[in-house]
Design a protein that fits this description.
heterodimer; A: about 200 residues; alpha/beta; Potassium Channel Kv1.1, Chain A; 4-stranded mixed sheet; 10 helices; about 50% helix; B: about 350 residues; two-stranded parallel sheet; 18 strands; about 30% strand; SKP1-like (chain A); Skp1_comp_POZ (chain A); Skp1-related protein (chain A)
Chain lengths: ~200, ~350
């Protein structure tokens, strides 16, 4: 197990209230360990509820095994916790349901998300899984920005969307896989039509 | 319910479910240029949709039928479309503009972020009403939202493209329009059809130029009814009983007809009416209205203001105060010079 002993970002001790000065330990699915402040954890509804339910003391945090986050790898989790530490103490935005949703990407977040699309993809999954509302907002905004100025054909390429023809072909393939006889029946029907018969029976 | 809205919700949900893939596997090979939108969790791609503006969302919806079938989950059913037939423009939520441009070149699309408008260039095939109708159909298929406002403004008689577009809208949505505005030269039979068949909740505004005569036989159920005609306009005021505001300019109403109307109002036949303005070339000085002559009703004396709503208030000076049988107070006013007009202002208390 590789352990990253230091917090993922520098902590301003003065800025953190004494009673909040507890660091939890989390472990990614590739066995990377992270220490995250209690205040930063509050950005994640999932983790916040988890640690509240666990009711760990400072001793428990040190003595018990790190809390495992099974489906997020270390590289992604590092980004997540860096984001949480940077935004700790900030209010969690409340969705007013308006469309289009106005989301500004702060400079720190833009730099944090200056990553390849594969990692961005994982970061969004992680933000969704850990229920980090604002991280989900900014990361989805980054994906939405990819649509700017694109034509429908370009959007198909960018977002890997199947065309109508590809959808049709996939649907036919799925039907055939489900019922191999269907194709034969269809061919037989076409053949009878060609021969001038108007009834299948 | 029209065809555009008849697709059951389950089909939409099924189409969404087919996109929603919880598999974390790495079938997708990440490249700098691509991002597998629909391999994100449902909430995440919904967030992506929600941060796109309606025009970007519309362009996305044009990428495939499946996408067109699911963009409405952002809640676009509540959106409103305004159709400007004359300028071939559709505005979404009063803000996002979509222009349709005829071109001899291959059809193309361009989104100008600075102007905040989307331009669709269509090949000119000599049937220009089709493009607007087609784009409208695509928009409504994607967003499943109604047209709420319809504008037509054109003085060329041969350009009657407004009518098939309006007919298409009315035949494909159950929601009434909020506002119907027709301005220009239109065929009597088209206008008659529109006034008979289009349900409007707030404003009907008709301004006709160059039509010789129009006889209206319809009963609008809207708040505000405004009709202006340079030709002869015959309307039965009794058909306008549900309106709150009525403006008729250049009508053929006589003082006798006005007197009859006022007797009906006094008896309580126009419970919603707050304001009526009638201009007519047939008012005389001889006849009276409810026993008052034109000098009794002239604009001299105290000024008052009637606030209809936040956008509209009417200044009133002088006139003669009257009471309806139900105690409602009102003021009748009449011009003593050209143009000839009559006003009734009904006070709240």
């Amino acid at each position: 197990m590789s352990v990253e002993n230091a917090p993922v970002v520098d902590v301003d001790e003065a800025a953190i209230p004494v009673e909040k000065k507890m660091y939890y330990r989390f472990e990614s699915n590739d066995k990377k360990e992270f220490r995250v402040s209690e205040l930063a954890i509050q950005q994640s509804e999932t983790l916040n509820r988890l640690v509240e339910a666990m009711g760990y003391t400072s001793e428990d945090v040190e003595n018990k095994p790190a809390i495992a986050i099974e489906n997020i790898d270390g590289k992604t989790l590092k980004l997540v916790f860096q984001w949480c530490e940077h935004h700790k103490g900030e209010a969690i935005p409340v969705d007013d349901g308006s469309v289009p949703k106005i989301v500004e990407i702060p400079e720190f977040d833009a730099k944090l998300m200056d990553i390849d699309n594969g990692l961005l993809f994982k970061l969004i999954w992680a933000a969704d899984y850990l229920n980090i509302v604002q991280l989900l907002n900014v990361s989805c905004k980054k994906v939405a920005n990819m649509a700017q100025g694109k034509t429908p054909a370009q959007l198909r390429r960018v977002y890997l969307l199947p065309s109508d023809e590809e959808d049709e072909a996939a649907k036919r393939a799925a039907q055939e896989a489900q019922d191999p006889r269907a194709r034969e029946v269809e061919e037989e029907f076409e053949e009878r039509k060609r021969q001038g018969g108007n009834s299948f029976f | 319910m029209g065809l555009l809205y008849s697709k059951p919700l389950e089909i939409a949900i099924n189409s969404l479910s087919s996109f929603f893939n919880l598999d974390w596997s790495t079938e997708w090979s990440p490249t700098p240029q691509t991002f597998p939108l629909f391999r994100l969790p449902l909430l995440a791609w919904l967030e992506v949709f929600r941060t796109l503006d309606p025009i970007e969302l519309f362009i996305l919806s044009q990428s495939s039928k499946r996408v067109a079938n699911c963009v409405h989950i952002v809640g676009s059913k509540k959106w409103k479309l305004t159709v400007y037939v004359g300028s071939k423009c559709i505005i979404i939520n009063g803000k996002y503009k979509l222009f349709i441009i005829e071109t001899t070149q291959k059809p193309s699309r361009r989104y100008d972020k600075e102007v905040g408008a989307f331009f669709i260039k269509y090949e000119d095939i000599g049937n220009s009403k089709r493009e607007l109708q087609d784009v409208l159909a695509q928009l409504q298929t994607a967003f499943r939202c109604p047209v709420t406002t319809f504008y037509y403004n054109n003085v060329k008689k041969k350009n009657q493209r407004w009518f098939p577009v309006l007919k298409y809208i009315i035949q494909n949505q159950i929601q009434p329009l909020e506002s119907l505005n027709i301005e220009g030269t239109v065929k009597n039979k088209h206008l008659d059809w529109a006034l008979q068949n289009v349900r409007v909740t707030r404003i009907i505004s008709i301004r006709l130029f160059g039509m010789l005569k129009f006889t209206g036989n319809f009963q609008p159920i809207c708040e505000r009814f405004s009709f202006f005609s340079t030709g002869t306009l015959r309307l039965d005021l009794m058909m306008l009983k549900s309106c709150k505001l009525i403006e008729l300019k250049i009508s053929r109403l006589t003082m006798g007809a006005l007197n009859f109307f006022m007797k009906e109002w006094k008896a309580g036949s126009f419970p919603n009416l707050r304001y009526i303005l009638i201009q007519s070339g047939r008012f005389n000085w001889r006849d009276h209205i409810l026993g008052f002559d034109r000098y009794d009703m002239e604009e001299l004396g105290v000024s008052r203001r009637l606030v209809i709503d936040k956008n509209l208030s009417i200044e009133s000076t002088g006139g003669v105060d009257i009471h309806a049988d139900n105690g409602r107070k009102a003021t009748m006013q009449m011009s003593t010079g050209s143009p000839d007009w009559f006003r009734l202002i009904v006070w709240e208390d």
